[in-house]
Amino acid sequence: MALQRRLLDHLLATDPDGCFVAEDGGRVVGVALALRRADFWGLSLLNVAPDRQGQGIGRRLLQATLSYGEACARGLILSSRDPGAMRRYALAGFQLHPIVKATGTVHRPPPAQPGIRDGTTQDLDLVDTVNAGLRGAGHSVDLKPLLADGDGQLLVADTASGQGYAVLDIDSDVLLLGATDAPTAQALLAAALRQAGDEADVGHLTAEQGWAVPVVLAAGLAATKGTRVLAGVCATLAIPAVRRAAVVDDRSASAEDGVASDT
C-alpha cells in the first residue's frame, strides 16, 4: 500500500495535467491518471465507484486523459477483462492484445546468465536508451519510486551483443523487462527466475513476447490466462475534444458507454 501511494504521489507530481477526478455533490465518484513521456502516452489508473458505473463517467474520464496525450504517437493501456472497458478502449482507437501469464513453482532454476548484473540508479540512462527504442520514450523517472527503499530490484545487461533491463518486485516477480534483442531478453528473464526462489509470476505476455515462452516452460512454470488485456496503439491518437480541468463534473454525462473499474 505504501508503494502504491508513493507511485500515485509520483504521478501527481510529474503529470498534474494528466490527473482527473469526477465529482458529484462533493463526492469523488471516479479518478483517472495518465502519464506522458516524450512521444508515449500511458493510462496508469481509471477507476469509477461501483455504484456509479455504466453512467458515462468512465467514458468522460478516459476522454480527459486522452486529451493529455493528443500529440503522442504511441499509447498503452493495461485493461481489465471487463467487456465495457475493452469496448471503450477499442472505440477510442486502441488495438486489443490478449495476455497470458506464467506462474507456479520454479522446478528447474535456469543456470547463471553471463553478462547479467545487479543495476543501480547509474544504469537508468541505459534503461532510457532501451525504452526509447522500444516505445519511443524513456521512463526512468518512473522507475526511481519503484526502486526506492528496497521495493524493487534492477537487473541489467550491457554487452556487445545487446542491452536490456528487468525490474523485479520485492518477491522477485518480474514487473518490467525490456531489451534490444530476444536473446538478451531471454537471458534477463532467466536471471530473474533463477533468483525468484520457489515461486515465480511472469505476467503481461502477449504474442510479441513469444521469446519468453521457452524460458518459463523450461523453468517449469505453467502458462495461464491473464487477468488483463493490453490495449495499444502505434498511430497518432484520435482525441475527442474535451474540457481540460482538474475536476470533471459528471452531472451532464450520458448514461451509456460507461467504463468499469480499471486500476
Q: What is the C-level CATH assignment of the largest domain?
A: Alpha Beta
Main sheet attributes: strand count, strand direction, barrel closure: 8 strands, mixed
Strand order of the largest sheet: 10-5-11-4-3-2-1-12
What shape does the CA trace take?
globular
- What is the name of the CATH architecture of the largest domain? 3-Layer(aba) Sandwich
List the helices and strands and how they pair.
Blueprint: H1 2-14, E1 19-24, E2 27-37, E3 40-48, H2 57-68, E4 74-80, H3 83-91, E5 95-105, E6 116-118, H4 124-135, H5 140-147, E7 152-158, E8 163-169, E9 174-179, H6 182-194, E10 199-205, H7 212-218, E11 222-233, E12 247-249
Parallel strand pairs: 1-12, 3-4
Antiparallel strand pairs: 1-2, 2-3, 4-11, 5-10, 5-11, 6-7, 7-8, 8-9
Give a verbal description of the structure.
This protein has 263 residues and is α+β, with helices and mostly antiparallel strands. The protein has 2 domains: 2-93 and 237-249, Gcn5-related N-acetyltransferase (GNAT) (Aminopeptidase, 3-Layer(aba) Sandwich); 101-228, Aminopeptidase (3-Layer(aba) Sandwich), CATH 3.40.630. It is built from 7 helices and 12 strands. The chain has helices at residues 2-14, 57-68, 83-91, 124-135, 140-147, 182-194, 212-218, and strands at 19-24, 27-37, 40-48, 74-80, 95-105, 116-118, 152-158, 163-169, 174-179, 199-205, 222-233, 247-249. Strands 10-5-11-4-3-2-1-12 form an 8-stranded mixed beta sheet, sandwiched between helices. A hairpin with a 2-residue loop joins strand 2 and strand 3 (40-48). Residues 233-263 have low confidence and may be disordered.
